[in-house]
Q: What sequence folds into this?
């Protein structure tokens, strides 16, 4: 019985355990890995894939896919920098780019997929090429420099340590009140809360807070992109878990016909999801252009693969209907930590590719194993 | 008298929770057409799947003898080698390939380089088709371009090319035009002369009288009576064998009072999904009243499911005609519209069309009431309200599960069905349509569902039940509509309905007076 529970815990939290083991191993292997500066760097690198991964999770949740996100990153970066070149202020150029690039591409993808049932793989593969072509055409094939200096704040600025600590403190307080409330609610309804699960959750949260304080509470503070990512991920977790829209996604991915016959507007829901993922990809492109202080038309190439990898490693089923944002964040962290660690250790980038590919395959195999429970 | 080529003895086949075949015995002779008759779910198709090796030995019990020799089929290929071929309702041809390639699939004649000898292939096919008198199909025709009737003939040719001596035809005429049926029967008669033994599954009485030599009836997985020459039995006697059960007092019945008319359907038609110009529902008109249970009877494929799905807005583009709710024309273009008009539809296939198997009971019971449990503007779900709704259904339907967080995929069939019932009860329908509400669930759960429907009717809901089980329709309904070939052919009141009369209209043995 006891052994069974441990096994169950390992099974349901396999990716998290993998992340912890990986981090611990790297910390032992390389003394620079666990410095606050390096970890802050990892966090910043993870945000780009992480933000796209949030959208990709929703797409894969409805049994879709979006291969065009990497190209959308490129177009958004080029468009936002070009808009500033023609004299638009950064604070106008950013929302205009989001709406024009993210919104329009998302509507285009979503329209064909939802209205005419064209396989998402094909229509977004087409957009992958189209959007890259647009980025190259608009930029004339060369990099576009940033004209408005205030634009750099978005990608490179920090929230200083003191406000960061205040924010973390407030977040911790919110977490504790929620915990207390859900505990008393489950006591009232008489259903015994799963103690093991609860304890595990508290330990994970406490470790997360401690790590955040260590990494962002000193030095330069919290990088703005990381803060944006945290807000987006938090909002997405809430939407998926606690809103009508979230329910619709799980229903749609789990059984599309049943969802339709339960009164869910399939067309509208799919359109919204594809718009969200494009908006998030465009945002990533803007953040990247800001940090690099310029946009290359080739920016974001292959990002779709990292985003999909993060989602899949995080346990979201490619068949749709099950998965979480939390899982995707862990997946993105695994990829980020792996990239960073292997570079620190001087592993050749050729080997890095091989190892990354093997890990993705392993994750999918694990997903298939899990699915077998009542499928056969 | 011709030789007995097929004998099946004491065949028993069990599925989890159901005994589909329960000691079946019959024999068939060379050169005869033996009709296998029975209601939906009587076990005909299962029996033929045992014969064809689809359910391999030893997944069943009993013995199969071909020409007196005991056989055990471990795969369809084994059965084929013993001369048994089955032509299923869903044909097994590859639409992209030609007629010749399909017939000789994986057995194509080759030249000395190992490549396919196309000339030989086509001339072999031509010879085969000529022998069957099939003139209007060419070996090079792509199967995709053929009508269903011609495809069926290609299947038969394919079976004969493998020297099949026992041919099973599973409802071969269900999708054929009258002319195609005539062509098929011409081939069937020729095969009889050639000494081929045919087992023929059909619901159509007319056909049976025309071409069958003998008939055997299956009911509840058992053979009823002996194999009987068609000349020695009347249609009435066949129907009596098919429906024989007595209605036990499984069906609760309170005093029901018919309220005002709530649903009126006028001249509803639904386009056939595959055949342009054809209709799968033809000019259907009927009404439903508050406080009444309306039964819809008919064979599978008679258009019952299509009719109610169309009312529910499942095929907005293919549906024509008017639906009036409480006297006002209702514009229903999607299931969401139908739900907003107070209609609920419990579908006949709970796994494919109903359940979210990976999700918990709470999710499944509230998915059609998301508007109720969430804030109107932000869409934020009130978790405690959701809990209340889910727990209410678990309690009132007696769903056996550890709690509302239990994943639905782990529940039994009866409990899964109750979960979907709970979903629609939470939506609070005024008109509740149930398509085969008790299919594949045990008797205890059935009775509980009957009680629930009776109570809903007493509370003033208009309940519409579709069922293939005649006792269920007769036991529950105040009025019964019978459908056949896409049309509503008859309406009975509870008092004047009999199993036999319903069956006669459902099978087309009797037609409505024009």
A:
């Amino acid at each position: 019985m006891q052994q069974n529970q441990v096994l169950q815990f390992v099974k349901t939290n396999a990716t998290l355990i993998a992340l912890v083991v990986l981090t611990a191993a790297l910390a032992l292997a390389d003394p620079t890995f666990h410095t606050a500066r390096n970890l802050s760097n990892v966090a910043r690198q993870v945000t780009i894939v992480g933000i796209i991964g949030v959208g990709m999770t929703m797409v894969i949740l409805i049994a879709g896919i979006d291969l065009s996100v990497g190209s959308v990153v490129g177009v958004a970066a080029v468009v936002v920098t070009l808009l500033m070149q023609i004299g638009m202020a950064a604070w106008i150029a950013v929302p205009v780019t989001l709406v024009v690039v993210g919104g329009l591409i998302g509507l285009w993808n979503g329209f064909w997929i939802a209205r005419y049932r064209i396989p998402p793989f094909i229509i977004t593969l087409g957009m992958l090429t189209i959007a890259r072509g647009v980025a190259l055409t608009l930029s004339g094939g060369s990099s576009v420099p940033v004209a408005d200096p205030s634009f750099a704040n978005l990608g490179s600025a920090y929230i200083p340590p003191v406000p960061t600590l205040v924010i973390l403190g407030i977040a911790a307080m919110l977490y504790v009140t929620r915990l207390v409330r859900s505990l008393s609610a489950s006591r009232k309804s008489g259903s015994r809360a799963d103690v093991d699960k609860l304890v595990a959750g508290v330990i994970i949260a406490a470790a997360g807070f401690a790590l955040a304080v260590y990494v962002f509470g000193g030095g330069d503070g919290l990088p703005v992109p990381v803060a944006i990512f945290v807000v987006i991920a938090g909002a997405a977790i809430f939407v998926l878990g606690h809103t009508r829209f979230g329910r619709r996604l799980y229903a749609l991915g789990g059984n599309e016909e049943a969802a339709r016959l339960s009164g869910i507007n399939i067309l509208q829901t799919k359109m919204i999801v594809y718009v969200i993922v494009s908006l998030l990809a465009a945002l990533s492109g803007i953040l990247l252009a800001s940090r690099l202080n310029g946009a290359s038309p080739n920016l974001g190439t292959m990002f779709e693969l990292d985003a999909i990898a993060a989602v899949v490693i995080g346990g979201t089923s490619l068949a749709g209907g099950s998965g979480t944002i939390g899982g995707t964040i862990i997946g993105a962290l695994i990829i980020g930590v792996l990239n960073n660690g292997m570079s620190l250790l001087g592993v050749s980038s050729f080997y890095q590719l091989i190892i990354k590919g093997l890990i993705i395959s392993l994750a999918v195999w694990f997903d298939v194993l899990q699915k077998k429970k009542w499928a056969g | 008298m011709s030789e007995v080529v097929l004998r099946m003895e004491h065949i028993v086949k069990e599925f989890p929770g159901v005994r589909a075949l329960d000691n079946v015995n019959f024999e068939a002779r060379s050169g005869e057409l033996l009709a296998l008759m029975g209601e939906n779910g009587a076990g005909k198709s299962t029996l033929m799947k045992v014969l064809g090796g689809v359910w391999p030995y030893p997944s069943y019990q009993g013995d199969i003898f071909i020409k007196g020799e005991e056989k055990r089929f471990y795969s369809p290929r084994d059965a084929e080698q013993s001369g048994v071929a089955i032509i299923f309702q869903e044909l097994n041809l590859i639409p992209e390939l030609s007629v010749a390639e399909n017939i000789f699939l994986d057995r194509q004649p080759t030249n000395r380089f190992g490549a396919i000898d196309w000339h030989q292939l086509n001339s072999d096919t031509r010879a085969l088709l000529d022998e069957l008198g099939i003139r209007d199909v060419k070996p090079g025709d792509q199967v995709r371009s053929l009508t269903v009737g011609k495809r069926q003939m290609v299947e038969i040719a394919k079976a004969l090319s493998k020297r099949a001596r026992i041919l099973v035809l599973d409802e071969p005429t269900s999708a054929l035009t009258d002319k195609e049926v005539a062509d098929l029967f011409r081939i069937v008669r020729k095969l009889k002369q050639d000494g081929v033994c045919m087992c023929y599954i059909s619901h159509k009485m007319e056909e049976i009288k025309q071409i069958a030599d003998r008939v055997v009836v299956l009911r509840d997985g058992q053979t009823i009576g002996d194999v009987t020459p068609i000349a020695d039995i009347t249609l009435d006697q066949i129907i009596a064998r098919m429906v024989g059960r007595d209605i036990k007092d499984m069906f609760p019945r309170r005093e029901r009072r018919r309220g005002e008319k709530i649903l009126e359907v006028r001249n509803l038609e639904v386009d056939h999904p595959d055949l342009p110009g054809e209709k799968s529902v033809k000019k259907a008109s009927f009404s439903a009243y508050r406080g009444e249970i309306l039964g819809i009877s008919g064979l599978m494929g008679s258009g019952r499911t299509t009719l109610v799905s169309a009312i529910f807005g499942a095929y907005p583009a293919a549906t024509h005609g008017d639906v009036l709710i409480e006297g006002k024309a209702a514009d229903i273009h999607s299931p969401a519209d139908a739900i907003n008009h107070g209609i609920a539809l419990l579908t006949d296939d709970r796994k494919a069309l109903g359940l979210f198997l990976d999700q918990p009971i709470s999710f499944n019971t509230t998915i059609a009431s998301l508007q109720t449990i969430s804030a109107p503007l932000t869409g934020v779900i009130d978790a405690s309200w959701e809990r209340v709704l889910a727990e209410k259904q678990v309690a009132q339907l007696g769903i056996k599960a550890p709690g509302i967080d239990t994943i639905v995929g782990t529940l039994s069939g009866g409990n899964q069905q109750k979960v979907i019932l709970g979903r629609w009860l939470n939506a609070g329908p005024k008109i509740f349509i149930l398509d085969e509400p008790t299919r594949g669930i045990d008797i205890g759960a059935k009775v509980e569902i009957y009680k629930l429907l009776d109570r809903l009717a007493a509370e003033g809901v208009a309940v519409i039940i579709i069922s293939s089980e005649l006792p269920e329709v007769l036991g529950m309904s105040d009025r019964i509509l019978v459908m056949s070939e896409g049309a509503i052919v008859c309406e009975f009141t509870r008092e004047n309905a009999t199993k036999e009369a319903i069956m006669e209209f459902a099978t087309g043995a009797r037609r409505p007076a024009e």
